[in-house]
Amino acid sequence: MADAAQILTTADGRPLKAALAAAQGRAKRRAFLLVLPLLLFVLLTFLVPIAYMLMRSVEHDGFAASAPALVEWFDENPGFDPANPPEEAFAALVQDLARMQEERTTGIAGTRINYSVPGSISMFKKGAREAAGLEPPYKEALLAVDANFGRPALWRGMASASNAYTAEFYLVASDRKLTDAGWARGGDKERIYLYLFGKTFMISALITVICLLLAFPVAHLLATLPMSKAALLMILVLLPFWTSLLVRTTAWIVLLQEQGVVNNLLVGLGLLDDKGRLSMMYNMTGTVVAMTHVLLPFMILPLYSVMRVIPPSYARAARSLGATSWTTFRRVYLPQTLPGIAAGSLLVFILAVGYYITPALVGGADGQLISNLIQFHMSKSNWSLAAAIAAMLLAAILILYWIYDRLVGIDRLKFG
Amino acid sequence: MKKTLILTTALVGLGFAANADVTVMSWGGAYGEAQTEAFVKPFMAETGIKTIMVDSDNPATPVKAMVESGNVTIDVANIEYADAIRLCDEGILEPIDASTLPAGADGTPAIDDFLPGAITECGVSTDIWSNVFAYDNTKFPEGPTTVADFFDLEKFPGKRGLKKGAKAVLEFALMGDGVPASEVYDVLSTPEGVERAFAKLDTIKKDVVWWEAGSQAPQLLADGEVVMTTAYNGRIFAAAQNEGKPFQIVWDGHIYENEMFVIPKGAPNMEQAMEFIRFATSTEGLRASAQQISYGPARKSSMAEEIIYKDGKTVMAPHLPTAPENMANALETSADFWVDHDSELNERFQAWLAQ
Q1: Of B90, B210, B350, the CB nearest to A373
Q2: What predicted TM-score, i.e. pTM, was given to this entire model?
Q3: What does the pLDDT look like over A183-201, one tens digit per residue?
């Protein structure tokens, strides 16, 4: 019996643990150096842009950089009353408007304020043109140029924008609006973001489930057929994968629209009245069908690669022990495919949540998802708001991923 | 081996140097094709500068993205009036000196020859286009004649096509509700006015098919998915002329605006870009464009002589938004209004769509 305190050594006297660690360290370093180019690539093209986008969602110095006098005044008077700003505030505003006119920054400053107080751009432009010629008392003079310069909402907006770092965009993305009384929940007719977040997740979940139900039999068939037939079926699965996304989406438009192939067929067969054509396009149905079609290969392939390595002997053993088909499937086969189901579902769900082009083309009125709004704000140059919505989406996905990890376990994921 | 490597590297390097051409970004579809025929090919033929045209659903978005990321790959872009003003305000575009634009064929200086508002700080107008509505005249031989008819589901049953967005749709709704063109923006500036527009849209909401891309509108009409749709007038004209579709445009209540050529800040070939713009917005250039697609030239000198379509026989004058007979109840898009209220009204519109 070896002495518990005796340290194992290698032939040349080094402690075994240290020698092992050194050898493994070399192997680890070599492996790390091999992966380093890919890591740098991912960092530069993936993580850095995402970090940049997240920064934009809390930062916008369009006003803070163009209105130094006001920024200083707001700093010195944090508790001012927005409904009744004093003469010095207006003096600072006039001074800044004149400066904006000279430095041609009226547009950028006005745009920043316009995000929370619509109508500000033209107001600022008018004010900037007149600012140089205004005489004290500045309050009356500026109110004479445009009465809206006295609005409490405007002063709240400017105070908030005087700091380049702000949570304002997250507030807007949560359906809050800046009113004269402060930030408040948007009216019934204006709330859209939280509703769309919910709808996006629900539709994506629905699509994931439908994909799973459709993909499971196909993957099983692919995994159990003899090689020649399986290869042919595999090509049929992969071929749409290689076709352009837009072509597939427009093909669905042609098939499902009211005067499209399916409806014409049904009417021609006499199953439908010409007046009673099915409305399957430019609504939720069209979105779900088209997106399911596009995302199906992402579910089939992980399932297939997991099913291929499941030995058929387990199912046979279960049957020989007296289990019915259903019990065999439920208690022996299904649990073995769980890693593939987990991988496929995660992939399809995350892709579906971010999808934008298919709902844009076939969604019509009720097929709008949150990604369409992100695209709208990107096109209207309000990148900070688009970044805020995207950051909220990212956070929601990460939370869902964490819950998924607790339930299923990431190490149980198998792609084959 | 080493020699081959050096040779191929040198060839690649040469290839890059020879790429000093002009890249123009436009909207694609029939419009992009028309501009290729009218501007790009003649410019290349005359100056020998290699020019290529790229397509985009709305060039304003990639322009901003390129300038902000510091990687500008296009030299000239074709964007809407309000976007041109907004991006110029944000410092995304190069200022264009109007005094360098060529005079009209009759000698009038450019500033006087262009229609009012056609030259802005950072943009020059390439054409005047319009949001009109069109119908299939095989379905309605005695077709709709006013905007109110668009909203009349009893007299003209069937689905309608509308652009998915607030701009040009809210004004259209107000005009359909009887607001004269001159008062539309005053009404729309009030909360009650916005309510009124949405209420009018509510009357047809369940029968609307919403389109996004310019070529979707004539496609919907051709497929029979809708019996009437709003569209960009040039696209309907192209479908009717080139493909013989039985589409009829209704000019009542059309909403027109200038489409602008702009240069993104930091464009790689600034000199050639300006040369291209000067060529394209000359009297002859704008005439050539109007011969390809029915968007009106923004220069008076271009309309001095009759413009004949490229098929050699159709006279373009009645098909242009700026023709006097079409301007009876026309509305010019107010760039100032939309620069202020685009985001706000679009959020409202999205909320209304979702309900």
Answers
A1: B350
A2: 0.82
A3: 988 888 888 899 999 999 9
